[in-house]
Amino acid sequence: MNKACIEVNINTLKNNIKKINKLTEEYERKIIDLRNNCYGLGIFLVNTFFDMGFKYGYVSNLDEALKVRKYNSKINIIVKNMVIGDNVFDAINNNIILTITDLNYLQDISLIKTKDVIKLHLLIDNGANNIGLKSYEEVKKAIEIINSKKHLILDGIYTDITTTGYIDEYYYEQMNNFWKIMENIQNQNILVYANEYIMYHEKQEIFNSIMLDLSVYGLNPINEIDNLKRKKIQKKYGRYAFQNIDIDLNIPFSIVGYITSINYVLSKNLIGRNYYNKENQRIGFVNIGYKDGLTKALKVVVVNNKISNILTDNIDSMIISIDDDVKIGDKVYLISEYNNMQNVLVNLKTNRYYLMSIINNNLPRIYILNDEKIEQEYSSI
C-alpha cells in the first residue's frame, strides 16, 4: 500500500517561476524565501530555484543557512536573525550574508577580527514597530560604520512589507516609511528590495530587486477589491498604484493519502469516536491523520475528481464518506490543485503562510520531474 506523502511536481514549479519571472522582469535580481525548509516542501528545492534564476536565498537562522549550503555551494544566503558569538565564523566560512537589525549588533560585527569579508544587508523597520533600523539617521550611521571597516561590505537594504495594500492603507504607510529613509541614500550598486507584495503594485524606481515566497507555489494573495476604497487609496497614494495582475499559477504540491480499507455502515451507528451517521453510508479509511498535521477541520477531500466529506479523524487516519466507485488503493487529495484552496483556508481558519507552516515532518516528500520520482524523508532534508 502506498504511503501518505507530499508530492512536489518540479515541472509545475518551474512553469510558475517562468510566469513570475516574466511578470517581474523589471527587477534585476530575485531573492527566494527558503525559510522553514522551503515552507515545508524541502530544502532540496534550492537547486531548482537557483537554476531558474534565483541567485539569493533568504532563511531564518544559521542552521537553515548551513542546510541550504549543503545542497548548493553557489547561492547567496541571507540570514534574517542575528548570528552571534563564534557562530559568526561559521557564517563567514560558508559565505553567508548577515542581516543588521540594529546599530549595537553592527558594532559587535565590526569588531570581529578576520581577514575574510563579511557581507551585510540592512533591514529597515516597516513602521509597524517590528525589527529593523528605524530612521534615516540610523541607516546613515550603519553605512558609515560599514564603509569604515575593510572586512565589511554592504550588499543590500530591504524592508518586510506585511500587507498587500489591496484592502487597507497599511501597505502605503509601510512603503512611505521605507521611501523616507531611502530617498537620501545613494545606491551603491547594492540590492534594494522588499517582499513579493510589491509585485502587485507599479514598480518603484527605488527597488532593483524583489523577494518572492508563496507565489511560486501558486498561493498568491486572494483579495476582493472594493473599487471605491481602492480609488480613495490611490488618490491619496498615487505613486503606488495597483497593477492589474493576470497570472495563472498552479499549485505544484499535493498532500495525499490512500484508501486503505472500505466499510458499509448502517444508519444510527457511531463512526470513529464522535460521528453518528443518520443514514446508511459507505466509508473509506485514509492513511493520514492529525499526527501528520491535518485534521477533520479540513472538512472535505478529493477522490477520483469528486468531493468527499471527512466524517472523523484519528491520530493516524481519517474516515471519509465515499461512493460506489471508490476502491482500496485510490489516491485521496487533502491539499492540491484539485482542492479549492480558498475553501481550504476558510475551513482551517488560517492564512496561506500558516497553512504551509503546518505541513508535517512525518510525511516523506516525493519530487516528480518528468517521469522520475525522487523520495526523501523529511528528517534528512
Strand order of the largest sheet: 2-3-4-5-6-7-8-9
Q: CATH superfamily of the largest domain, please?
A: Alanine racemase
Number of strands: 19
What percent strand?
25-35%
Q: Biggest β-sheet: count, sense, barrel?
A: 8 strands, parallel, barrel
Give the H and E element order.
Answer: EHEHHEHEHEHEHEHEEHEEEEEEEEHHEE
User: What general form does the structure show?
Assistant: elongated
The first-level CATH class name of the largest domain: Alpha Beta
How many domains in all?
2
CATH architecture of the largest domain: Alpha-Beta Barrel
Q: pLDDT under 50 segments (min length 5)?
A: none
Number of helices: 11
Radius of gyration over C-alpha positions, nearest whole angstrom? 24 Å
CATH topology assignment of the largest domain: TIM Barrel
What does this molecule look like?
The strands form 3 sheets. This protein has an 8-stranded parallel β-barrel with strand order 2-3-4-5-6-7-8-9, surrounded by 4 helices. By secondary structure, it is α/β, with parallel strands linked by helices. It is elongated and about 80 Å long. The chain has 11 helices and 19 strands. The chain has helices spanning 10-23, 35-39, 46-51, 62-71, 87-93, 103-110, 136-147, 170-182, 227-236, 341-348, 352-357; strands at 5-9, 29-33, 56-59, 76-79, 96-100, 118-124, 152-159, 191-195, 209-212, 253-265, 270-271, 275-276, 281-286, 300-303, 306-313, 318-321, 331-335, 365-369, 372-376. It folds into 2 domains: 10-240, Alanine racemase (TIM Barrel, Alpha-Beta Barrel); 253-336 and 338-380, Lyase, Ornithine Decarboxylase, Chain A, domain 1 (Beta Barrel), CATH 2.40.37. Helix content is 26%, strand content 27%. Helix 6 packs parallel to helix 7 (136-147).
